[in-house]
Amino acid sequence: MRTLPTGQYIPGHSLLHKLDARVKILCLVLFIAAIIGAASIWGYTLVLVTIAGLILLSELPIRSVVGSIRRMGLFLLVIFMMNALFFDQENPLASWWIFHLSSGGMKQGFSVVGNVVLILMLGNLLTMTTSPTQVTTALESLIKPLALIGVPTEEVAMIISVAIQFIPTLMTETESIKRAQLARGARFESKKLTERAASFIPLVVPIFISAIRRADELALAMEARGYRNAKNRTKGKKEPLVLHDYSALTISASICLIQFLLLR
Amino acid sequence: MSITIENLSYSYVQHSGEKIAALKGVSCSIEVGDFVGIMGPTGCGKTTLLQLLAGLLSPTSGHIYLHGDDINAKGYDRNSLRQTIGVLFQYPEYQLFATTVEKDVAFGLKHSGLCRDEINANVKWALETMGFEFEKIRHQSPLALSGGEKRRVAIAGVLATKPKILMFDEPIAGLDPYGRQSFLHFITQMNQSGTTVIMVSHNIEALCEYTRHLLVLEQGKLIDSGATRDVFGRRKQMASGAFGQTEAQKIVTMLSEGALALSPAIVTYDDLLSALKQELTRGGMG
Amino acid sequence: MLDPSGRQEVIKIMHKLHKAGKTIIAITHYVEEAVTADKIILMHQGRVLSCGKPQAILSNLELMEAAELMVPMPVRLYYDLQQAGVHLNRCPLTDEELVEEICQLRSKT
Q: Per-domain residue ranges for chain C?
């Protein structure tokens, strides 16, 4: 039984919760651009301050927003090491075989890891203040313009929506398969990395098969219920954008712009 | 390998913040070689109890002793626990993952400490016990088999470690009548050769016909335990809506309303049949 | 998959819909569920073995065996009693019918 899986929607009444989902997604994209574009200490400070402000606005406990970052610890360490050891072959601080530790590399490593952490936190803020239905409706509406160049937007939106809806089901299934394989002697929590990696397959293969099986069953059920091209489906309510939506968009766009100005 | 449970409790916190007590102070013991059923309405804690017994969950409080040793004590050999206890969950065919049947069945033996030859021998034995021809099945992909074959391969995977205790969670769910019968017959055979069997099931008739002892759970508490016949007898004495009456018992209740009183000790089909034969052939009827 | 009470709920809904005029086609290997049908189509390995009323199909031992299905308990009891020399009036399919038949027989003396 797990406690709070991070990133999961927590209903609330904060300002962030009230923002239109499309606006939030667009702001997320703008922020990601701003983070990647941050080239100086001022740039980073601006972004950090904004994120801190957003966390406050969301009225969510900081622990939950930051929670998943901890679990990514190993992954982040690997990213850091890859940068620190392979970045600069010319002026190494220390060398051994193909590994060249450099100060440039370490700086780059910090920067990349920092970006990833910030983006993750923003992603968490989005998913925690927006219900899955809101996210999918927003995505559907945002990718509509792509229909002009022939992208089947309704189908793409449906795919995303179904995928998101299946997450809880597949999570439960993962728990149950994990339990069964544990009972057979799989070592998921082993200290040895090789054992943990080997335990990956007995978990991932059954889940994949399960996901495909469910997709098959769902497709059959949808066809039986007359699904064709969703041309006549009833759409969700569309609420017009409100003042705080426009201000959020404006602020995000300005932060993004500032970063690029700072780049010069 | 007898099992003793002492004041076992398990609770967890859901992500809504709510605390759920799945098991409350359960105490009982299971003898070596017994065939025990665990029965109760949905949500009573049966699956949780099974997982605790198999060492897949750590209790919030209380102890589980396997042959006198506390399985949750520090330093207890978890690996040997995995080899001694074989657990089969619902729809075991969904756990198959390896490239060949042989590899999938051998998965549980990876940490057994047995040598290559012994592992191969165990795998062969397990597959043959499940009715397969070893040479034909060993190199096939487990995912390409039929539903029934998949299930049998999954069971072979659990048998491969030659566990002394077998635990099943709703093993006959989804099986057609003959499938159910052959599975129950199979685990009876395993039990007869000395394996302790613990079976969680919704199927009252299966529990009645095959188990020797029963544990009855309701809302996390152990409300009754004992010899199968006795437990069913007591269930019948409770309010008529009580969970866990066999079809034979239901018929006896209905007959008593129709003014034919049969013995309340009737539990199984055979009991009912002999009682009816006696009643209805008296005086040369029929 | 559903537990017994879950199954009962779904069956109740099926009956409700049927009463409301819908045609119901249900696939099952649970013989007890088929008892209440108006008509049963018995299949085995891709072929239809028989088609007819529950009374005719579910009480036919050879047919049920050929379909690899088990007869309902009242049917089993009917035949086992017959072998012991006790003859019920008709072959009951449900527990209620069984009790009825036994009481009828009893009252004959």
A: 1-70, 72-109
